Amino acid sequence: MQKDKIFQNLGLGKDVLEGGNLDVYSPIDGAKIATVKTDTPQEAKDKIAKSAAAFKVWRTVPAPRRGELVRLLGEKLRHHKEDLGALVSLECGKIYQEGLGEVQEMIDICDFAVGLSRQLYGLTIASERPQHKMREIWQPLGPVGIISAFNFPVAVWSWNAALALVCGNSIIWKPSEKTPVTALACQHLFQQVCKEFADAPDGLSELLIGERDIGEILVDDKRVPLISATGSTAMGRAVGPRVAQRFGKTILELGGNNAIIVAPSADLNLAFQGIVFGSVGTCGQRCTTTRRLFVHEDVYDALVPRLKTAYAGLSIGDPLDPKTLVGPLIDEQSYLAMEDALNHAKMEGGEIFGGGRILAEQYPNGYFVKPAIVEMPQGSNVREETFAPILYVFKYSDLDDAIARQNDVPQGLSSSIFTRDIQEAEIFTSEAGSDCGIANVNIGTSGAEIGGAFGGEKETGGGRESGSDSWKAYMRRMTSTVNYSSELPLAQGISFDAQG
Ligand code: UN1
After folding, report:
1. Which residues contact 86 (CB under 8 A, 6 or more apart)?
2. Which of 16, 340, 364, 480 has an alpha carbon within 20 to 30 A of 24's alpha carbon?
3. % of the chain residues with pLDDT over 90
4. E-assigned strands of 378-444?
5. CA-to-CA distance for 230 and 228, rounded, in angstroms?
């Protein structure tokens, strides 16, 4: 699809794409695709004020009616799935199929949130006092700040936005400065939906474009009770304490160092598919990317050479070409980080297959790389996340040892085991098994559905987004006790007789 056609279909005109001060480049060929306007600190503060005012109106709209707005957003996204999917490819470099998948995640979470808008249930709790009723009421929280990364430039926003909106909150989005155009497209689509919907107050969704300083304004603002931030552990380490300092809440979705264990009884065809998609998909730039592989010694020689053959045959190139399986890295910095990590692995005794830049003549400003497999020495581990397609492979002989090594890293996002042995599968998902937020059996580490809660432990940040009861993080829990008697009994049987 042609760039101009994509912009046109998504309603992005020259007023949005030109004349600003932030150049946006496509990672495919390094071509400038837009020069967008960034917000000044004052503009950012004004937008937060607008969002706070919008919240006061939106919180009074009945939740199922709020769901109707999200339903319309889902419809709009269905209509623009191909255009937005292609824009995602163009701006962040993932292949078109994955761009479409990302928009499908947006549609799915909208559907989920519409149902949820009639299910924001609270408990009724037995009171210890006669003729008293105690219940929990879930209340809207306030403006929700959403900070998102370049690698899922639109889906992560939608997980937060759809839930926050049905919960009665306004939303303020600070996208990655590497992918502001997809954010502008989503904002435009959302505004179109709001026009068709009488109850949407002005300022219900605000967009802050800029670098770190603009993000900090959002993070520090007391009017924003919840910051949901997705990105590196370094970013989370900066954001978490700043928000805590003002007693705000956070949902942090940070780094991963995800592993797959392949047991002797595994269906190797399944394992093979899961490993290749998990390790090279989105060019190794998903937070759920498979970064480590523990293969049992009995199946090592049946699996690892096959992976190498697949890696050698991967079609790498223009992500908008349907034949391509691996697009470019986001930028030169990512390429240099990959080179560094490979050099480091070599020093540690790793044997490298693949790696290195390709297509540099055709795309002097695009950073295409061959995904790498690194066979690591006995007993070693890799504890850092490098956001690039590097799969570290370890041989194991004892499952408990493999699980212990899988867990022995600072991150705790996603994990999986391929096995047909029910004992092994159940051990892996037991309290003594994987310590991650996601633990799969016979599917890979990436590509989670939106119906489950998404997020991880340890340095992954502990937050949960999208499905299950993640919505509770976007609301304020109120405990309300109602006395319908003519007495005022005190809890715990305390006697207190005031005279007068
Ligand atoms: C991310 O990489 O930030 O499970 C999110 C997955 C996707 C989401 C990844 N559904 O791979």
Report:
1. 1, 6, 96, 99, 320
2. 340
3. 99
4. 390-396, 411-412, 414-418, 438-441
5. 7
Distance CA 69, CA 200 (A): 8
Closest ligand 1 atom to residue 289 Cα is 11
- Distance from the alpha carbon of residue 414 to the mean position of ligand 1, in angstroms: 10
Sign of CA dihedral 194, 165, 120, 127: negative
- Which mutation among 176, 414, 446, 449 tests ligand 1's pocket best, with the greatest number of atoms within 8 A of CB? 446
Query: What pLDDT score does 377 carry?
Result: 97
Q: Taking a C-beta distance cutoff of 8 angstroms, is the pair 70, 110 a contact?
A: yes
What are the tens digits of pLDDT across the range 325-345?
Answer: 999 999 999 999 999 999 999
* pLDDT over threshold 80, residue 407: yes
Considering the candidates 253, 424, 459, 465, report the single residue annotated as catalytic: 253
Q: Is pLDDT of 114 > 70?
A: yes
User: From CA 445, how far away is CA 279, in angstroms rounded?
Assistant: 9
Alpha carbon of 450 to ligand 1 centroid (Å): 10
Which tokens go with 11? Answer: 């309603």
Buried b (16+ CB within 10 A) or exposed e, 467-495: beebbebbbbeeeeeeeeeeeeeeeeeee
* Maximum CA extent, the chain: 92
Which amino acid belongs to residue 134?
Answer: M
Percent pLDDT > 70 in the chain is 100
Nearest to 438 by CA among 258, 277, 263: 258
Measured from the CA of 449, which atom of ligand 1 is nearest? Answer: 10
Q: Which of 20, 2, 4 has the alpha carbon at shortest distance from 12?
A: 4
191 has pLDDT over 80: yes
Using DSSP, how many helices (H) and how many strands (E) does the chain show?
15, 23
Write out residues with Cβ below 6 Å of ligand 1.
Answer: 105, 151-152, 156, 230, 286-288, 446-448
186 is a catalytic site residue: no
- 18 classed as catalytic: no
Query: Averaged over 273-296, what is the pLDDT?
Result: 98
Across 355-489, where does the E strand assignment appear? Answer: 357-358, 368-369, 372-375, 390-396, 411-412, 414-418, 438-441, 453-454, 457-458, 465-466, 475-483
- What pLDDT, on a 0 to 100 scale, did the predictor assign at position 174? 98
pLDDT bracket for residue 2 (50, 70, 90): confident
Strands 414-418, 453-454: pairing is: unpaired
Dihedral in degrees, nearest 10, Cα atoms 405, 406, 412, 415:
-170
